[in-house]
Amino acid sequence: MTALAPTDKPAAQSILEKIGAGNIVVLVLLALYPAVASDFFLTQIGAYSLILGMISLSLMLLAGYGGMVSLAQISVAGIAGYTVAIFGLNNSGVHGFGWPFWIVVPIATLVAAGASALIGVISNRTEGIYTIMITLAIATAFFYFTQQNYSLFNGFPGYTGIRAPEFWGVNWRDPMPFYYLCLGFAVVAYAAVLYGSRSTYGLTVQAVRDNPRRMRALGFNVTAHKVVAYFYAGIIAGLAGVLLVWFNGRISPGTINVSAAINVLIIAVIGGMRHPIGPFLGAVVVVLMQTFAIDIVGAERFNTLIGLFFLVIVFVSPDGLLGLWGRIKPHLAQESLRSGP
Amino acid sequence: MAEISVASRLQGSGAYALELDGIARHFGALVALSGINMRIAAGERRAVLGSNGAGKTTLFNAITGDFLPTAGRIRFFGEDITDLPPHERIRRGLRRTYQISQLFKGLTVLDSIFLACRGVSRRRFSLLRPSINDVNMVQAESILNAVHLESDRDVLVATLSHGQQRQLEIALALAGAPRFILFDEPAAGLSPTERRDLVAILNALPKHIGYIIIEHDLDVALRVSEYVSMMHNGRLFKEGTPQEIEADPEVQEIYLGGKHG
Ligand SMILES: Nc1ncnc2c1ncn2[C@@H]1O[C@H](COP(=O)(O)OP(=O)(O)O)[C@@H](O)[C@H]1O
Ligand SMILES: [Mg+2]
Question: Where is it localised (chain A) (predicted)?
């Protein structure tokens, strides 16, 4: 049958087919969401899930495709947030150069991506559980450093009074514009990861995950490919960090502490790391639980609840909620992997 | 003395593909390789024979840089590559296969071979999806046909049979205009039919591509090589034509045991 035609590469594919029906349906629903959602649901659930989803997406990119589980992605987002606070405006009376957002945002993203690449260089020689340990160590060290350093990070209180900008006549702090801003960033990040996963570079990252030794024996500089993956993940985490600091209006060591780092991992694991939609799925579930479970079971039992849910998912479906979907519709999951009998 | 006979045999042929000078490899107290000297002319096809644990795979690892030798120098087409990282050696035209398949379980067969072509080409970091007309894709398709995997083109590597994985293992080494290939027991575990295919593939390689093949089956080795080196306990102890080696009483005693007796 392959003699007839490769089934996954028909000669002429319409744009709609290329994007995929499922992606379009979800995008339309998300675009219409503000029509039905209150301000609270727009920001505290919608925008916040998109932001956390993006940070987890940066982890999914590294872990799912590259086999590198980095717990320092929240630190990378935090570095972008601090950069926005330092170069933009804040009301903490420290730094706050007041540069315009269109300079500050690219700088923040690049600084974050550079920091992420540096983490990649440091953890390059490690694998598996050791990558988790060294990146957790980096995240912890960075947390304590921001808490103790006042000249750059303004120590324990951090920075407050950071605002999303106004441009094109829109105040992007308002709930609906801010939601669409987050949606736009998230869609671009999601689409880039989805497309890039089948690019030459995307294939090299997955091949490095499966067998770095063979990749070297094919002429690839494995270290460079890993570090570049950290750089790209840093761009996504950095953009999310900019949104996060605008969302909170502030950044302090509490934003990037160890439980925040673990939270990113929990979201990715609950959602599933086999497809870039997983982290967003996980983020919605965790944000909903964080928002409403507290009212129902109380703050103390809330972490127990998340923990239990996490355990159930890991036991029932190691591939997260995505994996559950694969079980309900196994033929769909199969189809995406193979092209024919 | 073996040294001299090889050298004289190749007199006038010019460049060597591979020159090994005093290669040694120790694992702690274990001496896996010692004093390996070897000259292989461009385009020469050499079989390396030796019992399990003789050091054959360790020799390949030293040549490719998978595991560096403890001592000795390696020249590849006249260039000293001893201090180069593995990927730089590969980019100079060296290739290898592995005794235990080293494949990409989560990739398709075609994508694996495509990467093998791209590894020694440009645009390794391209963020674009390769089109079917991409020069490396076209190369990959032709290699796919050469190793008879065309019907498994878009199948995940993890689902291939053992025999097919061995074919893919060879396909990855053929990609991207190799100049010299190290085959580590490519025939191990293959059925008689698959062995015949393998011999055909090796004999169909362009004449300028030389190789070393590690092979336990003397019949296969005889059909794909012009010269044989024997290894024992980390040393090269005899070299000769396949006929000389087969007839050598010492070889029969040490290596072949009762099998050909
Ligand atoms: N990574 C390693 N660590 C320790 N010993 C090794 C390692 N690799 C090979 N050896 C030892 O080196 C010797 C040669 O092994 P090898 O080159 O695999 O033999 P062959 O390929 O000829 O069967 C064996 O004694 C083996 O146990
Ligand atoms: Mg061996």
Answer: Cell membrane
Cα of B70 from ligand 1 centre, angstroms: 14
Which ligand 1 atom is nearest residue B50's CA?
22
Contact between A256 and A245 under an 8 Å Cβ cutoff? The reply is no
Q: Which residues of B touch A207 (CB under 8 A)?
A: 104, 107, 112, 115
Q: What is the pLDDT along chain B (261 residues), one digit of tens a residue?
A: 344 444 444 444 458 999 999 999 999 999 999 999 999 999 999 999 988 999 999 999 999 999 999 999 999 999 999 999 999 999 999 999 999 999 999 999 999 999 999 999 999 999 999 998 999 999 999 999 999 999 999 999 999 999 999 999 999 999 988 999 999 999 988 889 989 999 999 999 999 999 999 988 777 888 899 899 999 999 998 898 888 887 888 777 766 554 443
- Report how far ligand 2's centroid is from the alpha carbon of B121 (Å): 30
What are the backbone dihedrals phi and psi of residue A172, each rounded to the nearest 5 degrees, phi first? -75, 0
- Find all residues with CB under 8 Å of B16, minimum gap 6, and list them: B10, B39, B40, B41, B42, B75, B77, B78
Q: Which of A8, A199, A219 sits opposite B87 (nearest CB)?
A: A219
pTM of the model: 0.90
ipTM of the complex: 0.90
Chain B environment of A228 (Cβ under 8 Å): 125
Which structural domains are found in chain A, ordered by start?
A: 37-339 (1.10.3470)
Nearest CA to ligand 1 atom 4: B27
Distance separating the N- and C-terminal Cα atoms of chain B: 27
Q: Which CATH class is domain B1-93+177-261?
A: alpha beta
Q: Whose CA is nearest to atom 16 of ligand 1?
A: B55
